[in-house]
Write a structure and sequence with these properties.
With 186 residues, the protein is mostly helical. The chain has 6 helices and no strands. The chain is globular.
Length: 186
């Protein structure tokens, strides 16, 4: 990332913490929540790795292609899961954005330009930025009047940290903001 490393490390910490919380959500008794949390954990940790400042670690050139393949497979899984739940369409767009950023980094002429490759399709980047900016605004608006009840949690079950809908919404909001920041630095 351009400039001081502090914003990059803050982005790494935000994405890693979000990924860790999503791992905690995978212990939920609700099967759909577990599936969604797995995809979100992959996105959180993947974004954290991608945001590590170049001054600290620059992955080898082949790593970006492997990254694109991993998130391409996750995109296929999200596409398959979208027939059950429209929330997976958001996962599909998120994994597609990660594939886009990975391919842009692989095509970057300077291997030391981590998270600011400068290559890629401006129209696609603009569409992804528009989508995630809108998603952040919508997710933020949904977070304000967060419901108190745990949707989908069986009656009588104790509400664990992994079953709190307002925390899941906050994680999705933070990953959306991180995606906007990462796309802006491309």
């Amino acid at each position: 990332m351009h400039g001081p490393a502090s914003p990059g490390w803050l982005l790494v910490a935000l994405c890693a913490a979000t990924g860790a919380y999503c791992l905690l959500r995978m212990r939920s008794p609700v099967p759909e929540q577990r599936r969604a949390a797995g995809g979100e954990a992959l996105m959180g940790f993947g974004m954290a790795l991608m945001a590590v400042p170049a001054a600290v670690f620059t992955p080898p050139a082949w790593a970006w292609s492997a990254y694109a393949a991993l998130f391409g497979a996750a995109a296929v899984r999200a596409l398959w899961s979208a027939r059950r739940s429209p929330h997976h369409l958001h996962h599909l767009v998120g994994t597609a954005a990660m594939v886009y950023m990975s391919l842009a980094m692989a095509a970057s002429p300077d291997p030391h330009h981590h998270m600011h490759g400068g290559s890629g399709t401006p129209l696609l980047k603009g569409a992804l930025l528009l989508y995630f900016a809108g998603y952040v605004l919508l997710a933020g608006a949904r977070l304000v009047p967060a419901a108190v009840s745990a949707a989908g949690v069986p009656a009588g079950a104790a509400r664990r940290w992994g079953d709190r809908p307002e925390l899941a919404r906050a994680c999705r909001l933070s990953m959306g903001m991180a995606m906007v920041a990462m796309l802006l630095t491309m």
